[in-house]
Structure formats: C-alpha cells, structure tokens
Amino acid sequence: MPKARETVLEIDLKALKHNFDYLKSKLKKNTKILAVVKAFAYGSDPVTIATYLETLGINYFAVAYVHEGVALRDAGIKTPILVLHPQAVNFKTLIERCLEPSLYSSRVLNEFINIASETKQTDYPVHIKFNTGLNRLGFLENDIDHIGSILNKTSAVKVKSLFSHMAASEDLSETEFTKNQIKSFIKISEVFKNTIGYQPLLHMSNTSGIINYPEAHFDMVRTGIGLYGFGNSESENKKLQPIATLKSVISQIHSIEPDETVGYNRAYKSSGYEKTATIPIGHADGIGRQYGNGKGFVTIHGKKAPIVGNVCMDMIMVNVSDIDCQEGDEVIIFGKHPSAALFAQTAQTISYEIITAISQRVKRCYIGH
User: Fold this and answer.
1) DSSP conformation letters of 115-154
2) Whole-structure pTM over 0.90, yes or no?
C-alpha cells in the first residue's frame, strides 16, 4: 500500500468484494442483495462503491434521501434504488430519476399516489414499510385494510416490496424480541398479500439479520455496515475486512519541556520532557473533540500515540515521546488495525459514527481495483 503524504481516506475495493462474497455466502442462491449506500456509502464514496458493486451483480441500492439517489443516477448507476426516507417535496424529482420510494404513512402514500397520477405513471414501483418494533418509521399491522383500500383504487403505483427493520438483531440477548418481530412481519406479509392480490418482494434483515437470523432472509436482504467491514461481534469482525483506512502524516514535531501546555485552552500540560507530533486532521475532518485529551489515539510505526489537548479544527497533536518518528512519517488513524470500531470505542461511540463523519474534504483514493 502506498504511504500517505497527506490526509487521505484509502478505500480498498478488494476488501469490499471480500465482504460482499462473505455475506452472499450466508444466503440462498436466489436471495437478492440490497446494498445500502446512504451517507456517502458510510463515509467512503457512493459512486465508486455503487459502480463496483454493479460489477459484482448487486440487485438493489438504498439511500436515505432523494438527492443521494439523484447523484447515483447522474453517475450512470442503472440498478434500482430504494429511497428509505423521501420527503414529498422531492417526489417529482424522484419519479423523474426513476427512484423508488419507501412509503411509511398514509400522508406520504396519498401524496405520492397523487403525484404519480398527475405525471401519468402506471404501476410505478413503491415499497411499503411496516413498523414491527423499531418505532421509527412505518405503518402498523392494523393499517393494512386502509392501505389496501387506497392501493386498490389506483393503477398509478404497484407495490414492489414490503419491508420492515430489525431493532436489535445484533444483540443475542434480544433474540426473543427479534423473533417476535419476524413473526409479526410474516403475519403482516400474508394479510397484505391477500389484501392487494399479489406477492411483493419481502425484506427485513440488515447485516446482523443476515448473520444471526437466516429464517428472516426472505426474498432480499439489506446490508450496509457489513459491506464496509463491520459485523455484529468480534468473531464476525474477523471474517470481514474494513474497506476504509484513514491516513495522515506528521507535519511537525515539538519538544515540550516540563509543565508546558499544548493546544487551545492549554488543555494538556506535560509532566516532563516530552515530544509531540502535529497531524493535519481535526474536527472539521470528522475527528470530533470527544477524541481529545488522551481518549483517542493514532498509530505511528505500529505504536499508539495518544491525542493530547483539545482536537483543533484542522489539527490534532499526539504524544510521540516513546516513538522513533520524523516529520513526514505516515500516521494511521483507523483501518484494518486498529479498526474504526476500536477508535470509536475510545469515545464510547460506534464505528458507524466515526466512518460516516469523515468530511468530504478528505481526499479519497482507491486500491484493489
């Protein structure tokens, strides 16, 4: 791998293929795979990721918002794209760009049907979301008759899929709750099919659902964090490969005398003669202030260097007193070792937060393609 000469997020497409193949190995032959590429493909690069996944035969993509889907269409992505949380103000754009909405309430269902009818659509693919316990978005089981009465009066839309979302599939202490969610979804699916008179695709499993609940794979599964290299346990993490490595360099090394302070608000005071290194990455790049003052660390020549003082907008300072290093040397913030999950733990958060927080001003580069 090339050594960093500036702050970069290095994206390994071979690792992405490894993760895709591993998750696919958990499925039956005909089970479709939906790749979640929202939030800049979990902080990496949605266009590059989606383009590569198309070459692997991905069946569907999902984004959170319409503008994310538009960006993929502008880049030439042809695969169907589910928009998980569309807003009515964007429905016309959604239709123009052949995106497919998740409809989760009577309001959005009626508003989408109105716009689909106005634009003379026939059998436009929509996805109906049911809430089985996450209590975030979705219709309830007792809404089925109401939904059916609306759908059976229009030819503007057709239900492409019925789906729900597991609330705690990664937590085996919540197995009973998750199994009840699965039972509820199966019941809803049967009643819904009989109400509308045809069988849509069914999907419920996220990455942890793929790993822990094969009985809930149904017609399609959705994977986000798993594609990017993170499972739901230490054992599963070993079978996946983080695709992103955040690298930087040492800009300057300072020799600090006893009782000297480092950084804004003099938040760090040296206890003796110390050596610090300044790294060109800060909270504007996604390394929040919560990682400062000894909580977070970087790795230089395989050794940990704790962050000292407050994280600045564009810089962090780290203690390198026990590390033989020079200005211009490479710094690893996270990657395969240590992982983003381990880095995030230092601030009592999760891998999702740190990887999706990496600013778009950080240069992306690619290996393994």
Assistant:
1) HHHHTT-SSEEEEEEB-SS--SS-B-GGGHHHHHHHHTT-
2) yes
